[in-house]
Amino acid sequence: MGSDVKCKPTDTPDISLSALREKYRRERDKRIRPEGGNQYVEAAEDFAQYYEVDPYSPPAARAAIAQDIGVAVLGGGFAGLISAARIRQAGVSDLRIIDLAGDFGGAWYWNRYPGIQCDTDSCCYLPLLEEVNYIPKDKYAYGAEVYEHCRRIGRHFGLYQTALFGTLVRWLRWDRSIRRWRIGTNRGDDLRARFVVMCAGPFNRPKLPGIAGIRSFKGHTFHTARWDYDYTGGDMTGGLDKLGDKRVAIIGTGASGIQCIPHLARSARHLYVFQRTPSYIDDRGNQGVDAEMIKALGPGWQKERQANFHTAAFVGFAPGQPDLICDGWTEVSRNLAARLEAMGWPRLTPGQLMELRELEDYKAMERLRRRIDSVVKDRKTAAALKPYYRFLCKRPCFSDEYLPTFNRPNVTLVDVSASRGVERITAKGVVADGVEYEVDCIIFASGFEITTELRRRLGIEPIAGRDGLSLYDHWRDGYRTLHGMMSRGFPNLFFTGFIQGGVSANTTAMFDQQGSHIAWIIRETLARGAATVEPSQSAQDEWVRMVRETSITDRQFWRECTPGYYNNEGEEQFRSHLGDPYGPGFYAFDRLLQEWRNKGDMEGLVLAT
What we know:
It is built from 20 helices and 21 strands. By secondary structure, the chain is an alpha/beta fold. The protein folds into two domains: 36-43 and 207-280 and 387-444, FAD/NAD(P)-binding domain, CATH 3.50.50.60; 66-203 and 450-608, FAD/NAD(P)-binding domain. Strands 2, 3, 4, 5, 6, 18 and 19 form a seven-stranded mixed beta sheet that branches.
């Protein structure tokens, strides 16, 4: 990273588009399950150890806290840290971050499995780099560096002093008599917050596969998001020395599985990898960041890089526009730009442009499949590892170690696509296609509550606004907000995440956009002497109408994708992991918010003293 050499298009093979379309359809259909997202079990009740137990920093006993709080930020991951930082910068100091974890980090606190690494350019992904004066070490940062960056933000903005760790929010109720939110926790606290910012990110709450017999296994189990190093030995760099005599099964081959499987293979007596759908696997090719080159770019370099990444992923390059990221995420756009340049950048209709993009997509995926043949020696195993779906149907993964792992004699790939998943779990092991694989340990790499029902995702019951209005009921038929960050009937309550606003290819840029806007509203509400702020009914209705009317529907694309969390497991009632995005795009939304703030009249919000 840091070279002045132009990022070149990749060489991709010729394909038969019609044949591949049919192949993609067949591969998708054989993986669709009628229960959709309900095929997963919530990590609650008798599975609570997979979520509520902190294996890294068990919470110390403390007395219940009764306290008034100016701003309560629920969640200490990047969304919470960025929001809290922007609120502090807005001059509001009475603030507490509340989190179940023992430290800041969110997903990067909980996910400490061996090999964990950022899958996107770290100079884009790690937020607030210029504010805290930090430049990442590697293009793709390892988990320890990302976690430490979260702590760096906490220290820089003085967020540790009032943070409330080891505390799980159970319920949230608006108390009209004191015009504050009452926050109930697992510690018996009575916290009364004037403002609440919801920052429960999507990758914190694990989910488990709803496999028959999951409770019957007599060996050891854990989820990748709660890695048990007491059992495996080693640390995030590997060296799982306690597995030398163990037969291990891992269920799931998404991003978490891809990164930890090579380490398990090097240490376990035998590793069984249960795969329903193969992941997109491209070269990692990690390299150090040229810090001097970054420093020479001057102020604003990170936002420029984030905008370039967003363009590649969601829009496509314009003539002469460089690819600053230059990896698998930007390959299709880079190749498309090269094709258009060779054509003299002709005037094309949106439909014609999408046809060309689709062709480059199919060719790039075919390149990827042929790469598997060049790495994996066993033909049957190589065939099972090939992904047959469009780029971005599932989260792309990058690894230089994953595919060679299947050349090891102690590794068995068990393809369960024909039966749509593992058949059952017994006291002694895992059954797939009638064969029982006896193991000592089962590791669930089954992902997180990302597109499941909102109540289950948040795990807060109830969220009750004015007159006991349930947020879950209020949003039952779709989100109803103003700018995706506030909702009528829920005064002084703010939301972050994929709801009804701008969606960026870089999630932390979206969090920054939201956190900055929320901080402005809180500051202005206080400055104007108001006790509460919420959208008017008409403003909320107008925003919902605008979002739905300007929506750029890509539902057909997602419906044709193989099932996964990106398309809510292929359910007929479509629910996007991106919420209801603002159709004109992330940067158009950014301009809209800036113009709204510049007007200064807080149009569409109702302030009450």
